[in-house]
Amino acid sequence: QARLVESGGGSVQPGESLTLSCVASGFTLQYQASTWFRQAPGKGREVIGCVSNPDVDGRKYYDDSVKGRFTVSRDNAKNTLYLHLNRLKTEDTAVYYCAAVTSDYVRSCHEYEPYEFGSWGQGTQVTVSS
């Protein structure tokens, strides 16, 4: 019923850009904590960036590894979350996932643990190589 579907991944060279999309259906994304994760081979799943419920603080969070290069945005009319990846590096190679969790109206988006997210996309592969 509740679904998230990512798209936009691909194979690019270092320094290039990609935009990932995450279309939500079956629920309203606007009032969720909406988060992008990534998982590289042999690594755990890590938070890349997220946007909080605007009724909490509406803030965006970025991991230090991508801060200044990646941008999270949300189009409420389209019920879609985006991740803009700029100046890509080889170490950005990973499967990228979007996820959402109903806000508890207390925590910002990056304060949720992965197990708390009730909705996950299937992932989209980003490969950065020269």
Brief summary of the model shown:
This protein is mostly beta strands. The chain is built from no helices and 11 strands. The chain is 0% helix and 47% strand.
Topology:
Layout: E1 3-7, E2 10-12, E3 18-25, E4 32-39, E5 46-51, E6 60-62, E7 70-75, E8 80-85, E9 94-102, E10 119-120, E11 124-128
Task: Report what the structure shows.
- With 130 residues, the protein is mainly beta.
- It is built from no helices and eleven strands.
- The strands form two sheets. Strands 2, 4, 5, 6, 9, 10 and 11 form a seven-stranded mixed beta sheet that branches. Strands 1-3-8-7 form a four-stranded antiparallel beta sheet, with no helix packed on it.
- It is globular, with a radius of gyration of 14 Å.
- The N and C termini lie far apart (40 Å).
Based on CA atoms alone, the radius of gyration comes out at: 14 Å
Number of H/I helices: 0
Q: Are there runs of 5+ residues with pLDDT below 50, and where?
A: none
Provide the structure class. mainly beta
User: Termini separation (Å)?
Assistant: 40 Å
Give the strand tally: 11
Which sequence of SSEs, written as H and E, runs from N to C? EEEEEEEEEEE
The gross shape turns out to be globular
Quote the average pLDDT.
94
> Roughly what fraction of the amino acids lie in strands?
over 45%
Task: Record keyword descriptors for this entry.
11 strands, mainly beta, seven-stranded mixed sheet, 130 residues
